[in-house]
Structures are given as structure tokens and as C-alpha cells.
Design a protein that fits this description.
With 612 residues, the protein is α/β, with parallel strands linked by helices. The strands form two sheets. The chain has an eight-stranded mixed beta sheet, with helices on both faces. Helix 7 links the parallel strand 6 and strand 7. The longest helix has 20 residues. It is elongated, with a radius of gyration of 35 Å. The protein starts with a strand and ends in an 8-residue tail after the last helix.
């Protein structure tokens, strides 16, 4: 339960309306929300368009709760002072309202008869409100309690801003009267956070009723700087602009009735900010694990705070398989492998069966030396209904590193077959970076080569794979469409691959074919590392060694300045930057006369005739 007080020193800031809209937005998100009207002298949360589930029942609230306590000396059952709103039937969340009290002729007399100082000093008022808070948690199990506080400097304001909340949202119009009063309240909250045993109260500052006008004279910009200096905050948590609409007279709930308006979007953004520090909110905990925790330096999280967050999540979500899996990912990044495996074991016992769970388990078991266990998890991943391209590609990479003979099962795996064709293509592209993965990549490419989404790139990659495997005749057959196409019709990439395959078949480069490559490059010069490497070979084959060495230099410079995996026409594989540079060095040796043919030809010499 995360308790948030909405406070403003002066009225007229739109505080209550913001609270209701934020509450509805939270409930729309599937959360359980209780709103409490502590603005006792000017109550009104119950006047918003939040219909009651049982309108025939009388409305009692905070004032009645306190009066019953004063009369009996016992804390009343809070369920008698709270009603459910029926606005949420189409949403999975819940919304309850605890109003200020019965809006009858006796209300004013009742509120004025409460001596708040006496209540606290002589009638255990502090314990009364601690019990109230405990009852909220036990009876309604709310994710959020939003309290609308009285304005000004009051005893009730102190209850709302210092005793009850985990966070306070402070609304202000940036004028001197608002700022002077708010400074005192902010100082009191911060002092209370230091002296009290509870954790520090998180403060959110919201500038409200801001005119939606051009700030050509910099008035608003100066106001932002001034309020930041005086209230000592780094940035605003929200800004609510004035909204020119008669709908405001109907107290419309914009996040419910008009969710696409600018005003609704500002309330939605505020709701998100309020949630972001509450790790008891499952969505926030997941976001923290996915984004903030893996890169604490980027977000300025001190080590102590990070470890406290980890332990809080671990305790709160001890039986949540998804969060335990994400937490294991974090611990793996911290190299806490045994802790991570223990969490995964617990996640599995709690029913975890996601592709992410099996992938993390496989990687950790592999790192821990349990290869059979890792392979079992990969097999389970390959049947998982939620497996995406990301998990399948990562699993393929793991198999490449640890047990490449198992790669042959990938193309037939149910999860792989469910992938969209682009995903299948990119996994083949990944496997093309290893001699062990080439046969599987070729199988995948053959199965998708006629699909329009990838036809051109898949055909080109299949030709490359055939050449890498020494199947030069098959590559030429695809390029020429069984002899139906002439090289005169080819684009530069096809001419080059044709020339390289022909070299592999005849054991000698064809100057005529490579001259065609040079001519096409002259029409539209290629400017990437692979292209420069290819042109270096073509220029060498046409007796232009000087031009060839210049292109090697350009390829080297591009990879050195922008390192990335790149296809190499020396080995006919997609290589990491350091390995590509090694291939460039070998290509230079060919140009300088130290070698006579590329690596892919040398490695495939002597293969059985049927392989080519």
C-alpha cells in the first residue's frame, strides 16, 4: 500500500481534480485505489462523477469516524465509512472513496467540535490514524491510497503531509503567496523525514493552472527557476495547464471521459511519475529490473539503494515467477550466478515456463558447467509458446558456442516455425558467421527464399553460404537461374559472387568477370567495408594492385572507425570486427603476391565432387 497525499497551500490549484483523475487512471491500469477526502472544511471528492455502487446507503466519512472514536474510545470499523465506486466495471482495477463526512446541516457543527490538538495530546490521536491506515491495508488491500489534504498550515494538514504518506504531491501556482506558504510546509515534511523513524517522504512538485500561452518574455521560464531554488527540487514532477472548457463545470473525470485531451495526458503523466518510486507496484518493479537496475550508473543509483531495492523486490515477489526470472537476469549481470540459479529454481517451482525463463536458465547452467542442463532448457525454450526472435537467436548463439551439432534441430523447432519470416532470416544471418552454423543457415534460407518479404536478401545470402561451403556450381545455378540469365543482366553483387564461384570451380580468377565488377563500381561506387574488400580483389584480378591496396585501406579505416559484424569475401562468412580485420590482412597478402587464392577456396579444395 503506497499512501500519497495531494496538498496545496492555497485553494484553487486544481488539486482535488488532479487527485480524482490520477485515481481513475490508476484504477484503469488494473490497480486497487482508495481516495480519502481530508479536505474537511471544503470537501468535495464525492461530488465528482464517480457513481456509488450502492447509492441508497448513507455516506459517512472522516469526521464521523473521528466522532465515533471520541464517543466510544475505540477505533471504529473503517468499512462503515468507505464506499465503492461503480465506474470500473470495464476495468480490472477497483476504486473506493472515503469522504469527509455526511454533507448535512450538522456537518459544519461536527467539524468545528473536533479539537485536533486535544485529540493528539490526550486521546491517542496518533494511534487512531495509524489504526486507520492499518485498516485500509487489511480491509481493502489497496495498491494506492490518495489523500486530499486541507490547505494552509493546520493540524489536519500535518496528519496528511507528515504522518500518513509515503509521498506528497505538492501543487502550487508560481506566485509569492503560494511559494511562501509552501516553503514552510516543505521544510516541515523534510524535517519530519529526518527525525521520524519512517523512511523519507518522497516529494513531487506540480506547477498548476499554468496559462497555455507563448512565453515570449520568459516569465514562465524564470518562475520555474525561482520555484526550484526556493523549494529546493531538481525538476517538476508535472505541469497542469489551464484548460478552457465548460466541461470543468460538470466536474468531468478527463482520464475517464476524455482520455485523449491534453489535460488527461497531463494527469496520466503525473500518475506515471507517482508510481515510479513504488516498488510494491508490480509494473514498477518490472520496469526497474528491466531498465534501471541493469545500468545503475546511468540512473545515479547508489549501491546501498540498489541492494535495498533488490532485497525489497525479492521479499515482496517471492512467489512471482516473472519477477523472479527478471531478478535472476539482474543477478547474472552482477556475476552472482549461484544466487541467480537459486531464484530460477524458485521461479520454476512457482510455475515459470516462459521463453525468457528457459533462456536465462540455459545461460546460467552453461556458465556453471552444466551443459546437459543447459541443453534441456534450450529444448524447452524451442517449444515455448511465447518465444520470440530475441530468445531464439540468443539460444542459437549459445548452441554455436557450446554444442554446434545441436543446431540442426533449430529449423524444425515449433518456436522457430512460429516466427515471422524476417525473424527466421535474421537467425540464418546469425548462423552464417560460423562454419558450424552454415549448413543450418542454408537450410533456413532455402525454406524462405521464395517469400516476398526476404526474397532478394535471402537469395543473396544463400548464394554466399553455398560458396562458403564449396558448392560453387549450385551457387552459379541460382545466380544464372539455371542458365537463363546472362552476367550482363547482373547487378554488381551478383557479378562478384558469380566471379568468386567461377574461381572456385576453375581454380583461377576470371579477369573478364572481375573487370565487369570494376565497371559497375565506376557507375556507382560502393562505400562500405565489405564492398571495398570485394573491389580490392576485383582490382587485383584485373592487374590494378595499387588500386586494390587503396581499397583495402578504405575497408580497414571503416571497420576501425565503426566496428561492427561484417561479411567478408575472403572467408565468405559474416565476421566480428577483429576477425574481419584479419581477413583484410590476408586479402592484402593476396594482392602482394604472398597468397594465391582466398580462404574459402583453399578450405574447400579436395571436397567430394557431389559437394560442389
Amino acid at each position: 500500500m503506497h499512501v500519497v497525499t495531494f496538498y496545496s497551500y492555497k485553494g484553487g490549484t486544481g488539486r482535488s481534480m488532479a487527485l480524482v483523475n490520477v485515481a481513475v487512471e490508476l484504477a484503469k491500469s488494473g490497480l486497487r485505489v482508495l481516495i480519502v477526502d481530508f479536505d474537511l472544511e471544503a470537501p468535495g471528492l464525492d461530488t465528482f462523477n464517480l457513481p456509488r455502487a450502492h447509492p441508497e446507503e448513507p455516506i459517512k466519512g472522516i469526521v464521523d469516524f473521528v466522532h465515533q472514536y471520541l464517543a466510544t474510545g475505540e477505533s471504529p470499523d473503517v468499512s462503515e465509512f468507505v464506499y465503492a465506486s461503480s465506474f470500473t466495471p470495464n476495468f480490472s482495477g477497483k476504486l473506493w472513496v472515503m469522504p469527509a463526512g455526511k454533507s448535512d446541516s450538522e456537518y459544519d457543527k461536527q467539524i468545528k467540535s473536533i479539537d485536533w490538538q486535544d485529540l493528539y495530546e490526550n486521546r491517542h490521536g496518533y494511534l487512531l490514524f495509524e489504526d486507520l491506515k492499518a485498516q485500509w491495508k487489511e480491509l481493502f488491500k489497496p495498491d494506492y491510497v490518495l489523500i486530499d489534504s486541507r490547505t494552509g498550515h493546520t493540524d489536519v494538514g500535518g496528519i496528511c503531509t507528515r504522518q500518513l504518506p509515503d509521498a506528497a504531491v505538492l501543487f502550487f501556482v508560481p506566485d509569492e503567496q503560494n511559494l511562501r506558504g509552501l516553503q514552510t510546509v516543505v521544510s516541515q515534511i523534510r524535517a519530519s523525514s529526518i527525525t521520524a523513524s519512517k523512511k523519507a517522504i518522497k516529494l513531487h512538485f506540480v506547477m498548476s493552472r499554468v496559462p497555455d500561452l507563448d512565453d515570449e518574455e520568459g516569465i514562465l521560464a524564470r518562475a520555474k527557476i525561482q520555484t526550484s531554488d526556493r523549494l529546493k527540487y531538481e525538476e517538476l514532477s508535472g505541469m497542469i495547464h489551464q484548460y478552457q472548457s465548460l466541461t470543468l463545470l460538470n466536474q468531468s473525470v478527463f482520464t475517464l471521459d476524455r482520455p485523449r485531451t491534453k489535460l488527461a495526458r497531463e494527469y496520466q503523466a503525473l500518475a506515471k511519475v507517482i508510481r515510479q518510486d513504488n516498488l510494491d507496484d508490480r509494473e514498477v518493479a518490472l520496469e526497474f529490473l528491466d531498465q534501471t537496475a541493469p545500468h545503475p550508473k546511468l540512473h545515479g543509483i547508489p549501491a546501498k539503494e540498489l541492494e535495498e531495492h533488490i532485497e525489497r523486490i525479492r521479499t515482496k515477489y517471492d512467489d512471482d515467477p516473472e519477477i523472479l526470472t527478471r531478478l535472476a537476469v539482474l543477478l547474472r549481470r552482477q556475476r552472482r550466478f549461484e544466487d541467480a540459479l537459486a531464484l530460477l529454481e524458485k521461479a520454476g517451482a512457482a510455475g515459470a515456463n516462459s521463453a525468457e525463463f528457459h533462456l536465462v536458465n540455459a545461460e546460467l547452467l552453461s556458465l556453471n558447467g552444466d551443459l546437459p542442463g543447459a541443453l534441456r532448457e534450450v529444448d524447452r525454450l524451442m517449444t515455448a509458446n511465447d518465444a520470440t526472435y530475441v530468445e531464439i537467436r540468443a539460444a542459437s548463439r549459445l548452441l554455436l558456442q557450446r554444442q554446434p551439432e545441436s543446431l540442426q534441430n533449430i529449423a524444425q523447432a515449433p518456436a522457430f516455425k512460429r516466427l515471422e519470416v524476417e525473424g527466421q532470416y535474421y537467425i540464418a544471418n546469425e548462423l552464417s558467421g560460423s562454419s558450424d552454423g552454415l549448413p543450418v543457415a542454408m537450410e533456413i534460407l532455402r525454406s524462405i527464399i521464395d517469400r516476398p518479404e526476404v526474397k532478394n536478401v535471402a537469395s543473396n545470402d544463400l548464394v554466399r553460404n553455398l560458396i562458403a561451403l564449396g558448392r560453387f556450381g549450385a551457387a552459379i545455378d541460382i545466380l544464372s537461374d539455371g542458365g537463363k540469365r546472362s552476367t550482363e543482366e547482373f547487378q554488381i553483387v551478383d557479378v562478384f559472387n558469380y566471379a568468386m564461384a567461377q574461381w572456385g570451380l576453375s581454380s583461377a580468377p576470371s579477369p573478364e568477370l572481375f573487370q565487369r565488377v570494376v565497371e559497375l563500381d565506376a557507375l556507382e561506387r560502393v562505400d562500405n567495408a565489405n564492398g571495398h574488400q570485394c573491389l580490392a580483389i576485383a582490382l587485383w584480378a584485373t592487374n590494378d594492385a595499387e588500386g586494390a591496396l587503396a581499397r583495402i585501406g578504405e575497408a580497414w579505416q571503416q571497420i576501425a572507425s565503426r566496428p561492427r559484424p561484417t561479411f567478408s569475401c575472403w572467408s565468405y562468412m559474416r565476421l566480428a570486427p577483429d576477425r574481419f580485420l584479419e581477413d583484410l590482412q590476408e586479402t592484402r597478402r593476396l594482392i602482394e603476391g604472398e597468397l594465391s587464392e582466398p580462404q574459402f577456396i583453399t578450405q574447400n579444395r579436395g571436397r567430394p565432387a557431389e559437394a560442389t
